[in-house]
Amino acid sequence: MAIRLEKGQRINLEKNNGAKLTQFCVGCNWGSIIKNGFLGLGNSVQDVDLDLSCVMLDANGNLCDHIYSPLYRKEFLDQYGMPPGKVDSNDRALHHSGDDLKGDQDGDDGLDNEIITVDLNKISSSVEQIFFFLNNCGKEDFSQIPYASIRMYEGTPEWVKEIFAQYDVAAESQYQGKTALIMGKLYRRGGEWKFSAIGDAYPDGNLCETIKRIITNYK
Description:
35% of the residues are buried. This protein is globular. The strands form 3 sheets. A 6-stranded mixed sheet has the order 1-12-11-3-9-8, with no helix packed on it. A 6-stranded antiparallel sheet has the order 2-14-13-10-6-7, covered by helices on one side. It has a two-stranded antiparallel ribbon with strand order 4-5. The mean pLDDT is 89. The protein is 8% helix and 42% strand. It contains 2 helices and 14 strands; from the N terminus they run E-E-E-E-E-E-E-H-E-E-E-E-E-E-E-H. The protein has 219 residues and is mainly beta.
């Protein structure tokens, strides 16, 4: 039975049989926006471009690695002093499946639109915390998106073997005006990795603002 994560909840990465969860996927699934035409005729589909990213901090709370879309322009990133985007962490322990610019067009297909695969055994000893977060690259906010969720599961980007934990972002009024979501973090404690569901939403204009927020307020 998958754990339905609540904001602020902390969990051990341990499966029902007592084995440690060391290789898994962190995936985000979301739907495009269906707009009704005049008198309910001629419905149109509006693409939704969410970006799943992560940053890694060392024991002093300094940024030591990152994964975010390589599609971000260098000129934009330079304004914030951020390095170019990439899909692999330096230690090759985390890998991003690539950018999805649309979301599910025909309802929930059961697969995630963007996935970061994680191998805890390969993570550099200098990394103490890994934050996962979402940014909305369009004009809409989270309250307008029909569904969005993040989950941790065993499997591959194309195949879900078993869901370990899930955090849902419903289309609710509390997300009105919110375009960034700090979903949760992996962190070391007593030589083991644990996970904390954060679930804080903000009106950040872009991922660089969210990264700055994480480094300033969450380390």
